[in-house]
Task: structure prediction
Amino acid sequence: MTEVERQLADGWRYLRLTPAEFYRLTPREFQIMMRMEREHLHDELERAARIALMHEQAARAKRPKLSDLYKRPTNEHNDETLADKAEAANHAQEWLAQFTFESREKNKERR
Result:
């Protein structure tokens, strides 16, 4: 089996690409898609491991609560971060306002 045939087989096996779809991709695009498929597989396995741990924790607890098994993250931290970024952007705009920028053509005309 040639290298291209092996890549074609991998494209069908892992990405379900038809030969026409495979040949439309550049080698770089194909490698990126294969890498992301591998990452997706690892994400799924990690998710399954988390679920197994949650099942085990629930089985061992006397009266498990949802909050004991999973604590949903809050958006408070994200809102604070967004506010901090907005404040920093405003500060940067105020600082830049003290400068005057002219185009190169205007500078040439003055000379």
